[in-house]
Here is the input.
Amino acid sequence: MKSGVTVTQVSVSTKAGAGESGITGQLLGYVVTWILPVLSSLLIIWLALSLTDFYYPHAWVSAHIATIAHSFATHGIIGLGGIPIENFDPITTQPDNYLHWPPFFYYVLSLVPRAFPDSIRAMHLFMAFIAIANAYVMWLIASMFFKPRVAIVCGSAFLLMPATLRYGLILLPANLAMLWVSVALLFMLRYLQGSDAGRGKLLDLGLSTLAFFLACITSWEPFLALPGLLLAYAFDRRSEIFKTCFCWAIAAIAAGASTLVIYSLSDSTFLEDMWSIFTFRLGLTQYLPLSARVHPVEGQLETIDSLNVLSSAAHFFDAYVVRTQVFCGSLGIVGLFALFSTALRRRGTPNNFFATLLLPLGTVWLGWAAIMQGHYIIHEYQLILATPLLAIGVTCLYSLLDDIRLAAPDSWPRENLAMLTNLALPCALLFVGISAVAITVRGEAEAWDLANLGRRIKAEVPAGAVVVTNEMSMVPTYYSERHVIRGVPDGAYLESKLGMIQDTCPNCALYLAVRRQNVQKFRDQLDRLQPVFEDDSFIVKKISRAEHTR
Here is the structure.
């Protein structure tokens, strides 16, 4: 009798424990399936709403692209012949064409200031929408290879990567381009995995090709996805992969040709200038601006030495190891090892296209880092190219932990693995994301100062005038809403360029605007110019017609 009571008590206790464990498992499951994606989306939206000015790291990029978008919003895409203009009115006889990147992103972004004039927050919200859309597409892609709950981690990890939260809201063509790459890969996988040989499969191939065309006419980086797809065909010689390679190649050629035609019609020196900037970004030469370029900002670039990270082990380690860890997080790095492990385990699986997904993403990131090393190292925001691959890596890590949890024979290790998988890993992702947001929101004092210089120029200089400054950043240009000639190094250089400036805008009033710490560079000119404004921070003076003709 005593023995029976004991067995009954143990049985009841075991059922109760199992019930409690099941409830705990369900609650932990909600962390991944609902709480994590909602919090990651809300976090990036909150960040976009908080960034009401261009004051964060690399804000000069956003100010630059926003100025181009403003030009298209003001004059229209057709009105400017599709040519990006990186300045405000007046458009001089030699407009500031910015022809180093394909134009599609500028066209799309120009719709935002047209709908919401002078709203920096609206442009950041637009970029947040692009990031969330990319995360959604990454979730759809992951759903083809992982269980539904595991796939959700992919989209959340993409949004919470430090690179996304630090640079995903920068007005950068690569952010939209990577969305198009993800869409192209999604429809490519649907085409490859589809069993129906009818019209639906051809539609998937066509949509994949269209998305890849849009990616290539948005930015240069997606062109490197094509070698990755060709590499995938070398490992898996299925006719469907070859057909996709062929269609993507046609799309890339069409996008490149469209860009060359649009830009060449505007600037006959476009190809020569592109080659100069290309070899500079390769780390092979200095940038040699053409003599026809008016604005001295390009003259200052002539003094910048090329950077070859392969020149020493220290440069290489800092460029490709330290930066990757800082901007992608330790979790992302660990995820890469899980990614390799998962790819190897799935290598012999029939109808598995996991490598066909990974290789194009890998060549976009690593190919750009290796080939365009000068650009990749100088502009650390290029690490956004790594986020799709790293998000898949974190998903692989979660999947491996989940598989180990399910295979555990005892309840105790299973419960601990559940805590690690469904609570610790999401919390680690959120911690990494919140830390990145804190850095972004903190901003930089230099960018604030430059923005105030732009506001002062707008207040003191009438519309239609031309402003000369020694500042290289585009932040003062955007805030001033005036035609600004940047990067004039000193007074002697200004004297040498006055005649050229007069020729490009004969009837324009001309002003000089500098910050107080740069006064000594223009001391002789400032002493004889007509005062307009002066305080402890900024000096604005008018250059008279007599100075034009000295």
Remarks:
- Confidence is low (pLDDT under 50) at residues 1-21.
- The first strand starts at residue 466 and ends at 468.
- Strands lie at 466-468, 483-485, 510-515, 530-534, 538-543.
- Residues 2-50 form the longest helix (49 residues).
